[in-house]
């Protein structure tokens, strides 16, 4: 590299140097290298060795080894030559290369450690204008935030006909609310797992004026409390108060209530299940990319749509999910 720089200088070429660890290449690196190239004729890049990166970033860095990092840098248009260096700084190298321009990130600025040696040999420091938004540390943090957290899964449960006997329909008083066989036992099993337990229920009786939101909320509070006393955890209840004519986004088989669970609870839908007795539950599950278990009878043939499983009871459904 030293001989190359001597040769370039003899041929009147303007030499630009730049250095960095280039760990996990991102667009900030590319922009910096391109800007560096624009400062002269030939761009020489020095990549910190693994040992050198470790010495100032700690034992977990670099993520990518030095050969691959150097190859990636070499592959970028405008980069003419790449070398790996072992020191903490490039001062020693620059004293021999004697670049006309040495580029530096804005976080170090003009008064960087290389300034003295570069200016002594008639060169200048160019501070790159790349934004601080690009950084490998930020990239790593984003990856961890996105992928290293446990997935939040939910069991979505329909209410009427699934948790309680639907009776004459429009159930809104605790006197009429009868838990179906095996529901409490099954939900108790679910309550000791990581699954969020979320009830999603169409309550068009509210929109039809058969009962009020207050009635619904009272019954819900009673239901949650009754289940709690029996060791069952209900994490959330979503309801759609609209009639079919209102054409809302929340009434199943539409998926508004499921999307709410994504936003509010962070649920991953395709890791979740929906248990329901109605065709609309199965269609909603399909629409929301949730696996479904249908209780009760088969799906109408004309729908040409099947749930992932059928079950005769809630306990059978839950056992199917928990394996
Ligand atoms: Zn609705």
User: Beta-strand percentage?
Assistant: 15-25%
Helix content: 25-40%
| CATH C-level name of the largest domain | Alpha Beta
Give the mean pLDDT. 93
Which stretches are poorly predicted, pLDDT < 50 over at least 5 residues?
Answer: none
- Helix/strand-derived category reads alpha/beta
Strand count, sense and closure of the main sheet? 6 strands, parallel
Strand order of the largest sheet: 8-7-6-9-10-11
CATH fold type of the largest domain: Rossmann fold
Number of domains: 2
Shape: rod-shaped
**Known CATH architecture of the largest domain:** 3-Layer(aba) Sandwich
Description:
By secondary structure, this protein is of the alpha/beta class. It has two domains: 2-144, HUPs (Rossmann fold, 3-Layer(aba) Sandwich), CATH 3.40.50; 154-322, Rossmann fold (3-Layer(aba) Sandwich), CATH 3.40.50.1000. The chain has 13 helices and eleven strands. It has helices at 2-10, 27-37, 50-57, 66-74, 91-97, 115-120, 136-147, 183-191, 204-207, 213-229, 256-265, 279-288, 314-322, and strands at 15-20, 42-48, 81-85, 101-104, 124-127, 154-157, 196-202, 236-240, 273-276, 291-295, 309-311. The strands form two sheets. The chain has a six-stranded parallel sheet, sandwiched between helices. It has a five-stranded parallel sheet with strand order 3-2-1-4-5. Helix 2 links the parallel strand 1 and strand 2 (42-48). The longest helix is centred in the C-terminal third of the chain and has 17 residues, at 213-229. The chain is rod-shaped. The model has no long low-confidence stretch (mean pLDDT 93). Bound molecules: zinc ion. Zinc ion is lined by residues 240, 242, 248, 250-251.
């Amino acid at each position: 590299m030293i001989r190359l720089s001597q040769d370039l200088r003899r041929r009147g070429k303007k030499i630009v140097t730049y250095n960095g660890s280039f760990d996990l290449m991102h667009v900030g690196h590319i922009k910096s290298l391109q800007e560096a190239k624009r400062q002269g004729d030939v761009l020489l890049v020095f990549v910190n060795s693994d040992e050198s990166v470790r010495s100032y970033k700690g034992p977990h860095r670099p993520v990518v080894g030095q050969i691959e990092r150097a190859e990636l840098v070499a592959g970028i248009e405008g980069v003419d030559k790449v070398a790996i260096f072992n020191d903490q700084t490039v001062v020693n190298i620059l004293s021999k290369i004697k670049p006309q321009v040495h580029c530096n990130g804005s976080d170090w600025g003009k008064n960087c450690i290389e300034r003295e040696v570069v200016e002594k040999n008639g060169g200048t420091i160019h501070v790159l204008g790349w934004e601080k938004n690009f950084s490998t540390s930020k990239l790593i943090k984003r990856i961890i935030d996105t992928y290293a957290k446990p997935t939040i899964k939910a069991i979505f449960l329909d209410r009427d006909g699934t948790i309680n006997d639907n009776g004459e329909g429009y159930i809104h008083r605790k006197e009429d609310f009868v838990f179906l066989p095996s529901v409490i036992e099954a939900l108790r099993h679910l309550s000791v797992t990581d699954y969020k337990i979320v009830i999603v229920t169409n309550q068009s009786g509210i929109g039809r004026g058969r009962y009020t939101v207050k009635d619904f909320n009272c019954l819900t509070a009673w239901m949650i409390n009754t289940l709690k006393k029996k060791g069952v955890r209900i994490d959330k209840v979503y309801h759609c108060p609209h009639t079919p004519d209102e054409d809302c986004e929340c009434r199943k088989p539409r998926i508004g209530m499921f999307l709410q669970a994504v936003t509010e609870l962070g649920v991953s839908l395709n890791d979740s299940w929906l248990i329901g007795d109605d065709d609309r539950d199965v269609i909603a599950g399909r629409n929301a990319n949730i696996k479904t278990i249908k209780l009760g009878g088969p799906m109408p043939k004309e729908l040409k749509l099947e749930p992932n499983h059928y079950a005769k009871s809630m306990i059978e459904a839950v056992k199917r999910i928990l394996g």
